Amino acid sequence: MRTIKLNKNSHKLVDDVLKNLKASPDLGIYKCVQCGMCTSICPGASQSDYDPRDMVRRVLEDDVSIVDDENIWNCFSCYTCNSVCPSGNNASEVNQILRQMSIDKGEGILKIQSFAAYGDSFIELGVGSVPSKFFDDMVKDVGPEYMNLKLDIEDIRSELGLGSYILPEKSIDEIEEILDKSGFKARLKRIKGSKK
Amino acid sequence: MKFIPDKEILLFKSCLVNVEYPGVESSTCYVFDKIGVEYHVDERQSCCTGLGHYYDLFDQLSTITLAARNFNVAADTGHKNIATMCATCYAILKKSAKILNQNEEAREEVNGILDDSGLEDMEYSSGDMDPARNIFHVAEILFNKREEISKHIKVDLTGFKVASHHACHYCKVHYKDTIEGIRDPNLIDELASACGVETIGWYDHKRVTCGAGFRQRYTNKEASLAVTGEKLQALKDKDVDILLHMCPNCQMQFDRYQPLIGEKLGTEFNIFHLNIAQFIALAMGADPYKIVGIQTHTVPVEPLLNKLKQPFNLKEDQSKRNSLKINENRD
Ligand code: SF4
Ligand code: SF4
Ligand code: SF4
Ligand code: SF4
Hints:
The complex is a heterodimer.
Chain A: H1 12-19, H2 37-40, H3 43-47, H4 52-60, H5 80-84, H6 91-105, H7 109-112, H8 116-125, H9 132-142, H10 144-159, H11 169-181, H12 184-193
Helix pairs in contact in A: 4-6, 8-12, 9-10
Chain B: E1 9-12, H1 15-19, H2 22-35, E2 39-40, H3 50-54, H4 60-76, E3 81-84, H5 87-102, H6 104-116, E4 135-137, H7 138-144, H8 146-151, E5 162-164, H9 168-171, H10 187-194, H11 215-219, H12 221-237, E6 242-245, H13 248-265, E7 272-275, H14 276-283, H15 288-292, H16 302-306, H17 316-320
Parallel strand pairs in B: 1-2, 1-3, 3-4, 5-6, 6-7
The complex binds iron/sulfur cluster (4 copies).
Residues 38, 42-44, 52, 75-81, 91-92, 95 of chain A line the site of one iron/sulfur cluster.
């Protein structure tokens, strides 16, 4: 049987994962027993070479190449792994942290660049929206009625007795201020500006 | 049984409910009014960042700062209990409250950002929002009042085979707070039962994700739709007519893509998709277009309503655009 060797110097990556703001205080990565339950029910694993059990092993063995592994981008963030893990580990959360590390390094930016318009819309309106490139795909896949729905949405909402979903000016200003001071605006700029 | 409130509730607006299935919001309000839930909708509330968060576009610090602002909006009108219509908002808000309560350094950073933004009065103090006792999914609020729901049922929906899709981000993220089952979830099934409808209960794939996978739907479409297709097939094997939802994102994945998936697989699925609040509102006799909002659905709901003894005033053009027929031999 394969065992994971943990020695004093091999904790760098796992410590970085645990220190990340995204890591829940009770994230049980050290308790992983490599049982493979997560991989057995993982939709990412059934559809690609992504393997959450192996991802966790590589983090514990301080194999930093996992950050650059394309396969981490095949996770569905469905948390099914979390709900079955016998050790209180959360592979989904570990995955999200590795992706942020990849974004911080630069490579990961190319993976998320196409979603940047969601951030623009959030800053502008206080609500996100599907980036137009993906929206065009949806119209193709769902049908022209989907386009009509988008054009009629305000009318339909008033038919249903619902008000506008756009935030008041003052709230939008508050959100823009927050996203400026939190560093999100700069982050978004960096994401949009990055070239291959 | 955990404590579930029926008053002082902020009904948390969801960006996907807003523009995809607004009938989920009007149905929720309709049902809340009938069963005596006291709630408030606030125009100042922002989106939780959910989709952007799982696109990995948002950083955690921005997400929790916006959560602190929304928590303040909730408390400001005396509606400190949050009820979400979207499972992603539910999980994001709970996680944000946990970080804000437990991580002093992060809390100070958030308060610093709020100060710098001229929002000192929105500063967060540890314990302001209790993730287990103040943050709920609408389905839990309804479950707590299920006896009240039963008293208002007017429409007989028992002629259909009904199944449930429990949103992962409700069941599997903060599973210690999940009610009515995690690996065999039954929260929606219990609510259908309160409407006099017994669901099919367990089925193969019951707890499987919808397949949307956030970025996967857009950047890895084949894999995403394959997962959705497998679940639809499991439902078809059981001759299911109606799949009940509790999250606009899963509902989108199934309702918007079902025709395309059917085409790809050479199958007709004939499955209607309704949020549990839409289903309860229908059972209470709500108007399909003015309350339930079926006009935004991709799989038309008219053929389903045509099957009911209760006459609904259905729009011609809506039902004409569909090629979908409910299983004729099951009357
Ligand atoms: S993360 Fe949990 S489920 Fe996955 S291998 Fe480790 S112990 Fe098993
Ligand atoms: S969240 Fe977990 S189960 Fe779901 S795809 Fe990612 S690793 Fe797999
Ligand atoms: S989780 Fe989704 S639907 Fe809910 S507010 Fe956030 S982004 Fe919008
Ligand atoms: S089923 Fe899909 S959309 Fe629904 S909560 Fe789970 S991952 Fe999100």
